[in-house]
Every structure is written in structure tokens, then in C-alpha cells.
Amino acid sequence: MAKRDLLGTQGMTGEEIIEILDSAESFREIAERRVKKVPTLRGRTVINLFFEASTRTRTSFEVAGKRLSADVINVSASSSSVSKGETLVDTAQTLDAMAPDCIVVRHPASGVPQQIAAHSKASVVNAGDGSHEHPTQALLDAFTIRRQKGRLDGLKVAIVGDILHSRVARSNLHALTTLGSDVWLCAPPTLIPAQIDQISCRENQYLHVTHSINEAVEEADVIMMLRVQFERMNESFFPSTREYCHYFGLTADRVRQAKPDVSVMHPGPINRGIEIDAEVADGPFSVILDQVSAGVAVRMAILYRLLGGA
Amino acid sequence: MKLVIKSGRLIDPAQDIDRVADLLIEDGRIAATGRFDLTDAEVIDASGLIVSPGFFDIHVHLREPGTEEAETIQTGGEAAAAGGFTAVAAMPNTKPPIDNAASVQFVITEAARHSPSRVFPIGAISKGQQGETLAEIGEMVSEGIVGISDDGKPVMDARLFRRALEYSRQFDLPVIQHCEDMNLTSGGVMHEGAVSTRLGLKGIPSASEDTIVARDLILNDVTAARYHVAHLSTSGAIEMVREAKSRGMAVTAEVAPHHFTLTDDAVGEYDTNAKMKPPLRSQADVDACIRGIEDGTVDAIATDHAPHHANLKMMEFDRAPFGITGLETAVGLAMTRLNLSMPRLVELFSTNPQKIMKVKNWGLFAGSVADLTIIDPDREWTFDVTTSRSLSRNSPFDGWKFKGKAVGTFVNGKCVYEDR
Lengths: 310, 420
Prior knowledge:
The complex is a heterodimer of chains A (about 300) and B (about 425). By secondary structure, chain A is an alpha/beta fold. Chain A has two domains: about 15-135 and about 290-305, Aspartate/ornithine carbamoyltransferase (Rossmann fold, 3-Layer(aba) Sandwich), CATH 3.40.50; about 135-290, Aspartate/ornithine carbamoyltransferase (Rossmann fold, 3-Layer(aba) Sandwich), CATH 3.40.50. Chain A is built from eleven helices and nine strands. Chain A has helices at about 15-30, 55-65, 90-95, 110-120, 135-150, 165-180, 215, 240-250, 250-255, 280, 290-305, and strands at about 45-50, 70-75, 100-105, 125-130, 155-160, 180-185, 205-210, 220-225, 265. In chain A, strand 3 (about 100-105), helix 4 and strand 4 form a beta-alpha-beta unit. In chain A, helix 1 (about 15-30) crosses helix 5. Chain A is globular and about 55 Å long. Chain B has two domains: about 1-50 and about 365-420, Urease, subunit C, domain 1 (Roll), CATH 2.30.40; about 60-355, Metal-dependent hydrolases (TIM Barrel, Alpha-Beta Barrel), CATH 3.20.20. In chain B, the strands form four sheets. In chain B, strands 1, 2, 3, 4, 5, 16, 17 and 18 form an eight-stranded mixed sheet that branches. In chain B, a hairpin with a 2-residue loop joins strand 2 (about 15-25) and strand 3 (about 30-35). In chain B, helix 2 packs parallel to helix 3 and helix 7 (about 205-225) packs parallel to helix 8 (about 235-245). The longest helix of chain B has 18 residues, at about 205-225. Chains A and B meet through helix 3 and helix 4 of A and helix 6 of B.
């Protein structure tokens, strides 16, 4: 049987995504039990191979694997393995020789999960690569939205922030447009990538680009804020954090322009008072912690989908 | 020692020759063309084949000294011969760079000892290719450089580049620029466009090339030097060169085979063998390269042969080095992908490269060194990178099928490569 990977949401069909979300619904319930463990993946090995610091994603995968009874091994690798003379291919082949069933990869360079998947017999899950994709985040976001709204098609979803460098934005763009949401990308022109309107695999009428947060959040069903990375300021993408917040920060006033039942999301970690006001992050519209809970259920569904059955 | 190449189609645009005839070679030099039935000569049947002045690739990286695990002057020279090139011009970005008389002498000596093809060194423009002060250009000219360039990177400092253009005039030397504004490139690893956006890779905008070409053309206007644009890749830059030529400016330009063949789509799922500078660009740019070659805006096809050890190409796309090999696929690509007359092909691969560089010309005239490339225009063949003469394997053309091939390469009347 050919191995299956999850490398990105681009190219996934709506049916595939819905299957994962439906399956995650059944796994969600396990978190509510006193004994939060099922034997589904007993005897299977999952390696979390993280070349980049991460607390929430790595923990989420670890909890997901352990609740399915898989043996989970965390490897924090230096992304400068080159300095030891080891190529990426060597790393992949070395781990593969230990016969894991799944390798969960996070790496600061785009494309690394693809390269590892090509040299590994294990299923590979992309846990975030450079500015490319973070598919499990997009799936847990879709799961969260569906629980809040009961549907995904026809929703106005505003994604606000550093679109240029955001793998979360790309994965959400592919997944949400595939599922029929209207996605509004909002950022200063310096943080919108070239020809963004040409990358989605679905009809582009679902994709809008604006530089006005007011336009983006107006009548929005969902507002997804992205983390501002301060190191970007050295590259003159915007003049100062203060000016950025003035134009693109999510304030309570701006939230009031959205639908009365708007859901405010953030992939974390949050810069309180920078891209999102504390009162919004902690307010009644915030579903940020629901996203974290959903992460475990969705990642269980993904591991089950890739490894289950055999 | 006499050699007769019989019944080939002799093409040499510089001599206004295009006819089927025999070529008589004596003691490594062209003796005459006509009909020869000699009993004391070796005879090679070239019927159905094209006999051309030796092809000259004016843009290669031989990696010696410093990176001999990727290529040496010998293996690069062998790859050149196998690709039909009797001569190459070697870029100076070795370790250390070729920026002084002694290192030029090293390249010439090593080539004479080990390379089947001729190797003409190009000297650095600036000391250490640091872009700060001029290298000892005159001393390198005395040792035999045929041009100057800081290739691998641009001369970003406009004042220094102006000085290089001015200073080079006394030696009638081409000044070859790698056109890339490093501030605009800013860590980019592929063409900026829909593909880089989808893959989440940092883009190199076309403007990075266009702005330097524009600046240099203005500087060349005021210095009246011999400016040569290396590896043109954008429609905008090609249009500017076209316009400058129409005003009579002494500017020449080359295009690399991958830039008239592949678009940024070839990066696919992070194929590091599709990573080079300038990057593979859009279909409109590929079309502009082809139009430029057809209408004469582009003077030469040059490979930018840039071998890298396989280990380095197995790294993350962001980290893998820029460049691909090209010597053995250039003629096949030009003959398969472009719709050129044979005389135009010879111009692009031999006549014009000789004119651009400061070399003593060769051709199908009596007294010339017998440096010849024999082409079979009908030969169908497949490139297998594992059989490459280069020490490196970083080609995106492995397994590609071609029609048209160099089947014989002669230097000084001696066969250095044949594929019957």
C-alpha cells in the first residue's frame, strides 16, 4: 500500500477535508473522558522532528499521538545540521532506517517536508515549513469555524497580518476557498506576496485582497489575526510597530463592524496589544482556546487517517 | 599529418561560407577547402553533417582552484569537448578569485596540461571580487584574460563600475556584468511570481535584473566601453538591450539555454536543480529570450555552466547553491527548442562569441587553427546525467530527448571528442 502524507492543503479536495473534520468530531469527545486514551495506534511510532522552536504545535502532536497509544518520540534538531556535514537527505534516511510509521516535520525552510517525504518510507506530516504551508493549522481552523458557524461555505473570513511570510495564511487560503468561504486577505502592500490571486487552486472569486482592515472586517463571520514578527521591521516592510497597530491592529471598535456573532481567531502565540487588543483576545468573540483544543482532535484524525487501518 | 573532412556542409558566417565541400587540415591548421582525394591523408566522412568553426562557450565556471570536488579545469574541459565546445571562457569566481596575473597564469597552465578544449580566463573586475577597488586588469591582460567580470555577483557600486568601463577601454576588453541588484534580491531564491508565492520561497523580482541593466547602459553610454550583459533573463532587460543596440551602442548580450527553455514552473516541488541565478522566469520572459535570439538582440548562447557537488544540492531549497551544469546540453537544447537556421546557430555559438571576447579568431579559412565542431542535425539522443563528463550532476535536463548533437570536436586538428 502506498504511504500517505499530509504536506499541504493545496490540492486537497473538499471531500478529503470534510472527511478529516468529521473524523475529528469523533476524536474530540475523547478529550472529555476521564481516561483520555484509545488503543487505535498501539505499536505505531510517530517521530516529531522539529527544526524550529515550537511549544503548541509539538505538544499538540504529542498529545494527539499519545491519546491514540502511539509511541511518540520528540526530536529537536538543529536546522543547521549542514554544519555537521549532514544533508537533509541523510537526516531523512537515518530516521527512516529506524522504521517509524510517521514523521511530523517542522522546519524554517519551505519545502523540507516534501524533500523528507521523497526520501522516507514513513508517512510525513507537515507541521509548518517556512512560509509555505501549515496544513494541520488550517484544518483545525476550519474545524473550529465549522463548530462555531455550522458551515464553511459562504462565510466571510478575514485574514489580517503578515500574509507574505505566513504559512498559516497560505494553508487557510487553500482550504477555506476550497470549502467555499470568501477569504479576504488584509495587509500593507509590502506584506502581500506577488500574484497571490493566482495561487489558489479554486476559483478566484473566493479570494479578495485589501489594504483596509475596515473593509476586511466589515460584516465578517470570522477574523483571523496573524502574528506580527518584529524582526520584519529591519527589512522595512512597515515603519514601526506603532504605525502597524494603528492601521492593522484588531481593536474592539473594529470587531463591532463585523457580524454580531463574529469569531476572532489567532494561530498563536499572540502579541497582546500589538496585532490584537487584550480585550479582544480575551473577549466574548475570541475562539483562540477553542482552536487549541481543536488542534488535538484534528491531529488525532490526521494520524488516524494516515496510519490507521493497517 | 593531413586530415580531410569529406563532404560536410561547411558553414562559417564570418567567411560567408555555406557549401558542401571537403576541408583539408595540415599540421593542426586549416589548409584549404575544395575536393581532395589524397592517399596520404586520414579521411573522415562528414556527409550529412555540418562542419563549423569551433563552438565557444563564453560563460562557464570550472571551479578550479578551490572547489575541485565539483569540477576541475580538466573535467570541465572534457565536458566542454563532449558538448561540442572547442573553447570556453572561465569565470573568475574561484577560491581564491582570479584577480591577479599569477592566478591567470595558473588557469592557463593547468588548461594547457589537462583540458582538451581551450580555456580562456576571464579576470575579476575588483580585487577579491569584493566590489571595492579595481583588480590589476592590465597585468591580467598581459597574461591572457579575454574579458573582466565579477560574475556570481554584480558590481553594485556604480562609481566602481563606471571606472571599470572606462579603464577597460585601453585594452579593448569586454566588461561582463552579472546584472542583479542585491538589495532587491534580498535573499531571494527563485523568480518572484505566483510559483514563489505558492511555494513560500523568497522571490527575486525581474526588477533586480532590469534596474542594473538600465544603470549599466547609461554608464556605457557615457564611457563608450564594451559592455556585455551576462545571462539575460527578463523581457524588460532584453528590450533595453534591443533599444540600446538600435542607437548603435557597443553592447552585447548572451542568453543561457535554460532561460529560453524552462519557466519557474520547473521548480515544481522544490527541485534544487532548477535553482540558479538569474532564476527561471515566466513564460513571457522565455518568449522574449527566444525573440531576442531570433532578431539579433542576443549575440551569443552561453551556458553559465555552474557545477555543484551533489551533497550541496541535497539541502533545503533555501540553502542549496545557485547554478546548473550546461556544457553537454546546450547544443541539443538550442537545436531542439529554437527554430534557427544553421548559419545563425553557428553565429550564436562561434562567430559572435569570438567577436565579443578578446581572442584571436578561428574559422574555416586557410591558416586558422583547426578548431572545429561537427554537428549532426538529425541525431536523436537522450541526455543521461550519470554519463556526464562533468564531475557534477546538477542538471534539470536528465532524461530529456534532443534532436541535433555535436558528434565531433577538433582542437588544433586533433579529435578531442567523437560520437559516431
